[in-house]
Write a structure and sequence with these properties.
Layout (H helix, E strand, L loop, with lengths): L1 H32 L2 E7 L5 H15 L3 E7 L2 H14 L5 E4 L3 H8 L17 H4 L13 E13 H6 L8 H12 L5 E3 L7 H11 L1 H4 L2 H8 L8 H13 L12 H9 L3 E7 L3 H7 L4 E4 L11 E12 L6 H10 L3 H10 L4 E2 L10 H12 L1 E3 L14 H14 L4 H15 L5
Parallel strand pairs: 1-2, 1-3, 5-6, 8-10
Antiparallel strand pairs: 3-8, 4-6, 4-7, 4-8, 4-9
Helix pairs in contact: 8-17, 11-17, 11-18, 17-18
């Protein structure tokens, strides 16, 4: 009896020890799996929930030892706050990168790591990487994520009601606006100029590539072979001036958000757009949406679209989680990520070389223009905004003045050329 009791107690002790060992091992294993947390700093505040609830959980499912948090700052505050965090040492492991000069300056200051050895970069073309490389392409410091495409979003119900065809040429475009204007209470174009940037981004840089032939003209301006006073750079300002009669009363005080509300309310028929509007308009508009590309100047012309590199992700050299960050950066270079991203955020088009299927009809329309037209980027983005004042900001003001009619197209172009020649050697 005594022996049996001892045996029973010994067996119970062994079982308890085994159970405790298993629990300790499980706890330690769980802690090991969740040992690394990466944080991403970004300005994409509108997309924070999509990243946190749709995109990042898919990475975590195949990388259970890494968790990722998305920390968004309002776009207007992002640049300043990011620099402050980097200076203070409180920036995230991963940094969302704007194209060209802002991120280049961060790299040159030691705030972005050279990622040239990252295997996943082989999935991107030289053009896709160029927005996040040094001028001589010797270092790549961010992994390209997405581009956005410019064009026009329209109210299909209005077009059907007025028996309007999608315009292919500028003549057809203005004929459509004239017809819309006959409908009482309906504004043809939902655009305001209070925030300034919209006039250049959705105006000048939207229609302009069809005048200066996309990359041909943009690169010629950078190389000093063309000037803003050349006709192909002046003419878009003249065209913007003709938009004025179609914008409705009070457009001067209409903000970017006001223009969005005007369109989704059904009180405006056409919205000069970037593809980043797609998800928001899908959610808010109670009418059918369509899109058309910037009309060519005359029938038979080749078409050009602003297919602008928008966003990438880089690595903070001060991050204590370098290995985990490399794994994440390689993941965002995969076809899996490209497909997830394109469909979770319709209107943001991956820059990798992978073939992807896009499900959103409006996003598919924008994306298809890449097959028909030549792509270019916004004209002031690369090299030309390094001076003071920045060309990008000067273009905002010039586009506003063109629309408002406060200066002629020739005067605006001459002013831009003079300012650029003051500091940019190829234009002197």
């Amino acid at each position: 009896m005594t022996i049996q009791t001892v045996s029973y107690i010994s067996g119970k002790h062994t079982a308890v020890s085994t159970l405790l060992s298993f629990l300790v091992f499980s706890i330690l294993s769980f802690e090991t799996l969740a040992a690394t947390t990466l944080v991403i700093d970004s300005w994409r505040i509108d997309d924070q929930a999509v990243w946190q609830n749709k995109i990042l959980p898919l990475f975590e499912a195949t990388h259970p030892d890494i968790s990722v948090k998305f920390r968004a700052t309002p776009p207007a505050d992002y640049d300043t706050q990011l620099k402050s965090r980097l200076n203070e040492g409180s920036a995230a492991d991963l940094i969302t990168c704007r194209p060209f000069d802002f991120s280049l300056a961060l790299f040159q200051s030691g705030y972005l790591k050279d990622l040239s050895d990252l295997a996943g970069l082989s999935n991107f073309s030289p053009a896709a990487k160029s927005a996040w490389q040094t001028d001589d392409a010797s270092a790549t410091y961010c992994v390209p994520i997405a581009a956005v495409i410019h064009g026009f979003i329209f109210n299909r119900d209005v077009f059907e009601e007025l028996n309007l065809e999608i315009p292919q040429t500028e003549t057809e475009f203005f004929a459509v606006l004239e017809r819309i204007q006959t409908r009482e209470g309906l504004i043809p174009l939902a655009l305001g100029v209070r925030d300034r940037w919209e006039a250049a981004t959705m105006g000048y840089n939207n229609i302009g590539p069809n005048y200066w032939h996309g990359e041909t003209g943009r690169l010629a301006l950078i190389d000093g072979l063309q000037k803003f006073t050349d006709e192909q750079w002046v003419a878009p300002f003249r065209t913007l001036a003709t938009w004025r009669k179609y914008l409705g009363e009070g457009y001067q005080e209409r903000s970017y958000q006001d223009s969005q509300k005007l369109f989704v309310s059904g009180r405006a028929a056409v919205y000069p757009a970037g593809s980043w509007e797609i998800a928001g308009f899908n959610d808010r508009a109670d009418f059918r949406l369509g899109a058309f590309r910037p009309p060519v100047r005359k029938a038979g012309d080749e078409c050009f679209i602003s297919d602008h590199v928008d966003m990438a992700i880089g690595l903070n050299p001060a991050s204590p989680n370098q290995a985990a960050a490399y794994r994440f950066l390689n993941w965002i270079s995969t076809s899996e990520f490209a497909s997830i991203y394109a469909n979770a955020l319709p209107g943001f088009f991956p820059l990798s070389n992978h073939e992807i299927a896009i499900s959103d009809p409006l996003a598919k329309t924008f994306h298809a223009w890449r097959n028909d037209c030549h792509s270019t980027i916004r004209v002031a983005t690369q090299k030309l905004s390094r001076g003071t004042p920045r060309l990008e900001i000067e273009l905002w003001d010039a586009a506003v003045e063109a629309i408002a009619g406060t200066s002629s197209a020739d005067e605006l172009a001459a002013g831009l050329q003079k300012s650029l020649a003051n500091w940019y050697l190829p234009q002197k």
